[in-house]
Every structure is written in structure tokens, then in C-alpha cells.
Design brief:
The chain is of the alpha+beta class and 258 residues long. It is built from 7 helices and 10 strands. It has 2 domains: 2-30 and 103-242, Alpha-Beta Complex (Lambda Exonuclease, Chain A), CATH 3.90.320.10; 38-74, no CATH class. The longest helix has 25 residues, at 230-254. The protein starts with a strand and ends with a helix.
Length: 258
């Protein structure tokens, strides 16, 4: 993992991340609830499909009792938004029209998040005792994928540079109504799109865990820890499926030979 220490939202930060598929957009590659269904097949023909391997294994056990050559296969399917995202990445690299970044664009939601994020980070430190290292971004070991964490926890230093991390944190600072709706969920969750971003950070950094904090002043905070699991592997496979398509898109848009 390569770590960049500039402030997020600056021109330098925009330039550093330009052209890299980023964890905050991984939901466009593998949307929540989509992709990699588990299929039960018999002699090569699909007989049922399932969202989880556990459900597929139960179906496999039930059908196998009746005889037949049953097995489970997993297919990695990209979400429908991957092509538009690939086009956006190429445009960011090649277009002479600068992208709208935090240096020249803002709205009420952005201002609210920026003003509340520091308070959320302080609450997290007091609640957990974890010290948070702010960074500009992280690039995966293979140099293909990027994430811009809200903080690293337990960073690993080598020759004065951060080369890995024990964990990290992603902050979500919604308006009060959204936080109240999340507090009605059982169990408590963070928004699915944000959860994809958390799994993306696990993929990019190789961390052992990642905390997601939904924080809105005056309302009960929601703190959820995520460790690498089946969905992390699904996302990794989807990213590996996306990347050659992204490289092919670069050549096609630039008019280069395939």
C-alpha cells in the first residue's frame, strides 16, 4: 500500500487520485445486493440461484439427497453502472475541462459534512480510544485501486512512510432525519452504499478491519465494525473483472489499437 499525505479535496489530491477507480465509487461496479449470485447446477444446468453461499449449500444438500451431479458455482457480475464510471475516469484523465472538486464546488450537504466530520472523529477517538491518522489517500499494492479514508487506525510505518494499517474509519455525517431512520433499523446499520466503500477500503489497504461511523449531532451515533468477509471477496473479484474492461475502455475512447 502506498499512502499519500496531502489534504483531501485539494488540487494536489484530485491530481493524485485521477484515473484510479476509487472505493467511494465501487458501488457503481458492484452495487449493494447485486453481483456474484451463487448458482446450484446439475450436469451444467442451473436449477436455482442464491444471494449467499450458505443458502446455496442448503439447497445443494436438499437436492443431493434425491441423487444427481449437483454443485455450486459463483458468477461475478458487474453492476450496470460500470461502463459510465469507466467513461468518467477516462474523461477525468483526458478532458481539458477540470472536474468539479472541493476546491471549486460546494453545497449544503458538503458543508454540513465538512463541519461535522471533525466532531465525529473526536467522538470516535473518545469512544474507542483509537488514535486516528488522517491521510490523503491510499493506493493498492498492485497500483490499480484507490481509497480516500477518513482515517487510518494503527498505521504501519516503514522508513518513515505508511505502508499498511491495522484498521481504518469511514465517517458518515447525515442530516438528523436520515440518522433517525438508520436508528430504526435492527440491527443498526450504515447505508449500503457506504458499506461497499468500507469493503473497498479493506480491499485497497489489506486492513484487518474497518469502522464505519454514522454521526449526526444530538442523535445516537452508529458505530459498525466490518472485517473481511464473503462480500469483500465478491468485491475483489468484481474489481478484477472490471479492471481489464476499464483498460479496454481507455484504448477505445482514445482511439488506440486494442
Amino acid at each position: 500500500m502506498k499512502t499519500f499525505m496531502m489534504k483531501q479535496g485539494t488540487t494536489e489530491w484530485l491530481a493524485a487520485r485521477c484515473g484510479y477507480p476509487s472505493a467511494c465509487e465501487f458501488h457503481r461496479i458492484l452495487p449493494p445486493g447485486e453481483g456474484t449470485p451463487f448458482h446450484v447446477v446439475c450436469d451444467g444446468e442451473e436449477v436455482s440461484n442464491h444471494r449467499s453461499r450458505e443458502a446455496a449449500e442448503k439447497e445443494l444438500a436438499k437436492r443431493s439427497k434425491k441423487g444427481g451431479n449437483f454443485s455450486i458455482i459463483e458468477r461475478t457480475e458487474l453492476g450496470t453502472g460500470w461502463k459510465k464510471y469507466a467513461a468518467q475516469l477516462v474523461s477525468d484523465m483526458d478532458s481539458q475541462i477540470p472536474p468539479e472538486g472541493c476546491d471549486n464546488y460546494t453545497n449544503n450537504a458538503i458543508r454540513w459534512g465538512a463541519e461535522t466530520e471533525a466532531e465525529a472523529r473526536r467522538w470516535y477517538t473518545m469512544e474507542t480510544g483509537n488514535q486516528v491518522q488522517q491521510v490523503g489517500g491510499c493506493l493498492s499494492d498492485d497500483g490499480r485501486f484507490w481509497c480516500s479514508p477518513d482515517g487510518l487506525v494503527g498505521p504501519i510505518f516503514e522508513n518513515g512512510e505508511i505502508v499498511g494499517t491495522e484498521g481504518g474509519i469511514e465517517l458518515f455525517c447525515p442530516q438528523g432525519e436520515t440518522q433517525a431512520e438508520l436508528l430504526l433499523e435492527e440491527p443498526l446499520i450504515v447505508p449500503p452504499q457506504k458499506l461497499v466503500q468500507v469493503h473497498g477500503a479493506l480491499v485497497v489497504t489489506g486492513a484487518k478491519w474497518w469502522d464505519a461511523l454514522s454521526y449526526s449531532p444530538g442523535l445516537r451515533p452508529i458505530l459498525v465494525r466490518t472485517e473481511p468477509n464473503e462480500f469483500t471477496q465478491k468485491l475483489r473479484k468484481a474489481l478484477n473483472n472490471f479492471y481489464p474492461k476499464f483498460q479496454a475502455a481507455i484504448k477505445r475512447i482514445r482511439g488506440e489499437a486494442a
